[in-house]
# Entry
Amino acid sequence: MTDTSLLDRARTIAGPGYNRWLVVPAALCIHLCIGMAYGFSVFWKPMSQLITNAPASCGELGFMDALTSTTCNWSVPVEVHVFETFIAILGISAAIWGGWLERAGPRKAGFIAAICWGGGMALGGVGVAMHQLWLVYFGTGVIGGIGQGLGYITPVSTLIKWFPDRRGMATGFAIMGYGGGAMVGAPLAVWLMGHFAHDGIQGVSAAMIILGGVYFVVMSIGAFSFRVAPVGWQPSGWTPAASAGAMITTGHVHLSRVIKTPQFWLIWLVLCLNVTAGIGVIAMASPMLQDVFGNHLLGAAGASLSPDAQKAAIVAAAAGLVGLISLFNSLGRLFWASLSDKIGRKTTYSIFFLFGIVLYVLLPTWGHMQIPGLFVLSVCIILTMYGGGFSTVPAYLADIFGTQMVGAIHGRLITAWSVAGIVGPALIAGVRQYQLDQGVAKTLVYDRTLYIMAGLLLVGFICNLLVRPVHDSHLMDDAELAQERALQHEPSASRSGSAATAARGAFGAFGTVAWLAVGIPFLIGVWIALAKGAALF
# Structure
């Protein structure tokens, strides 16, 4: 029996005259919201100062006691585990429900993601108001993490099927939104906390609840705006044969067989190692800039400033680097993914690893030579490749495994991000602390870590070189493919019918409004990031 509810996939199949460029702002609505994950650090310090007269015994508060204490402030390290929780749940939920998402469609999956991320964030705000850390973990960490996972992979399959000729660019647009979500959300969160502040306490609870409501509405709009391409749809004038030399399969691998292929695990390692190294720079950039360059950031005028003014200027410079990191992380996602359409995914990742190795080895050199400008430039380039790794990998998967179940396969692969999100910061913090305990100077304490990251990139480079097309034995036969498509209740499209008319669909006033609705907030975020970055110069 065919499903007929408003959320069902069958209700989202595009008809004649649909313009595929309308799918991109729908995807951005979701990714700009869940991308606030990168901006959650703005909450940690205000959350640790909610109780003004905490008793002295709070200094010995353990993690388990902190979960239910209403009289003691939470420490920042305890709070940061909320971020680690929703990143871990992101990968787990994407892996578990990726196959379901392919059949349920982007509208249902996106709407559930909106409920989980928006509702989870609001529930976390209630936890802050009640001063119950366990509720913050459950709401923002667990429920919000499910929303992160579903929201992250929801647009991928849809975009790739609408843009078989520009797979990298299409996913680059959406995943650029994830990288840019913090540029929009973090300044808004800071403003809301200040607006609702009282008695010297920042309005963390109100900010989280309001942002949760906003994100639910925006993500729901995106979810209900999705349309999926009919089976067999292709852009006018494009044929798969045009890309025959780019290691792109014309078949499809079933989700149940993917993990049995060496290609999946090689690409898993490629993403994991690229992300581990990138997180290393994200985690270390601000303190490294302050520790390695210190007063050198102030220039000649720094000597005339008071110690407090010098400290404030150094912190401002570090904040400027964080703003630039967000900007280049986001823009790199579109740039590299679009470039991969021209030069191939394998070549793109080879550039990431080889160029990354050089830059990681050079970062300590810029520190020893006290050249902060080259340090900042190198970090920004590294972050473009970190973001580019995320946006290029869905197209890489589609090239190797086909497009039929690419969203589900992408969900399985995202577990690499969860692993990297835990291992990377732990490795970095452990090596740094070990060297400090051994008496290594702060200006030199990051060198070994950066060389380790360069070594990880070398391993990633080798894994990428080993990727080959999948053997035909792993591909679905015609009967299996027909059965999988039947489960999605998709009518076939003729090349001369709906495929041709859909390619010529009008953009119209709705398309203009949709792009402005996502483009203006993003550009405001870019402006704020550039303004913060100006502090470095």
